[in-house]
Amino acid sequence: MEVQRVAVITGAAQGIGRRTAQVLNESGWSLVLLDLQAIDVSEYSSAIALSGDIADESFVESAASQTLSKFGRIDALVNNAGISCISSALDTSAELYRKVIDVNLVAPFLLAKAFGRAMVAVGSGSVVNVASVAGLQGVADRSAYNASKHGLIGLTRTLAVEWGALGVRVNAVCPGWVKTEMDHKDQAGGSYTDADITEHVPMARFAKPDDIAQAIAFLCDSTKSGFINGVSLPVDGGWTADGSWQSLRLKHR
Ligand SMILES: NC(=O)c1ccc[n+]([C@@H]2O[C@H](COP(=O)([O-])OP(=O)(O)OC[C@H]3O[C@@H](n4cnc5c(N)ncnc54)[C@H](O)[C@@H]3O)[C@@H](O)[C@H]2O)c1
Q1: Gap from CA of 79 to ligand 1 centroid (Å)
Q2: Is 33 close to ligand 1, i.e. is its CB under 6 Å away?
Q3: pLDDT tens digits for 12-58?
Q4: Alpha-carbon gap, residue 151 to 165, rounded angstroms
Q5: Ramachandran area for residue 76 (φ above 0: left; ψ -120 to 50: alpha; else beta)
Q6: How is the chain split into domains, by residue range?
Q7: Binding site membership of 14 for ligand 1 (Cβ less than 6 Å)
Q8: Hey, whose CA ends up nearest to atom 36 of ligand 1?
Q9: Does domain 6-179+207-242 have CATH number 3.40.50.720?
Q10: What is the pLDDT of residues 136-176, one digit of tens each?
């Protein structure tokens, strides 16, 4: 009988996290879905949902023990939950900066420790951190967010080195701009428009949550990505590859 693999996904109530849960469900994974918001698990074949704040270490520890008592194993951790923060550096308070670092960088570390410990103990598993193109390049008015995502890529590389020989792979995906609630809220603040993004992306469109979810699923699955460890994979339609100036880029449309 085939063993049912178990994935933990943070921020699974909506957006990239929800689509990742659907894709892994279609491939037969059991799911543990974490979010601040309640999640209706009736769309999945085998899933539990736990509501809480991933920046709270006691919630993370309790989620890890509930996962092991329910399913008895953990094969993949998807550190997806994150918060946006669009604010010029001079206007960003230390309190706001710390909050973004706490959710986007400290929480993935706590989750990696709590769930990674169980993976290291059995000598297999995969951690996928959802970073951003903002973890690879500077983007103005995002000092806290960009620092958190650059840090998450640093954490990815370091855990890949510490845990690789123990059978646990650690990778990141770096989405470009994705059409989710996060984008709706950010655009409602007036800082950019659809055209600002689509004119810059060589593939001339936003990412869909499914584009990112498929890359995450690939990195979770050791039968497909079993020797990929420590990479930060852009899923950005060519955004980070493109050093063209605007008129040159648009000439190729
Ligand atoms: N949307 C984009 O354009 C984009 C681009 C690059 C990277 N990303 C990254 O992808 C990830 C998912 O983004 P999305 O667009 O789906 O976001 P989203 O805002 O639509 O969803 C994020 C989910 O995380 C949950 N969450 C937030 N803080 C939490 C906390 N402290 N504890 C538990 N749950 C929490 C929210 O409730 C929500 O369900 C984030 O890490 C984000 O930074 C998004």
Answers
A1: 10
A2: no
A3: 999 999 999 999 999 999 999 999 999 999 999 999 999 999 999 99
A4: 23
A5: beta
A6: 6-179+207-242
A7: yes
A8: 11
A9: yes
A10: 999 999 999 999 999 999 999 999 999 999 999 999 999 99
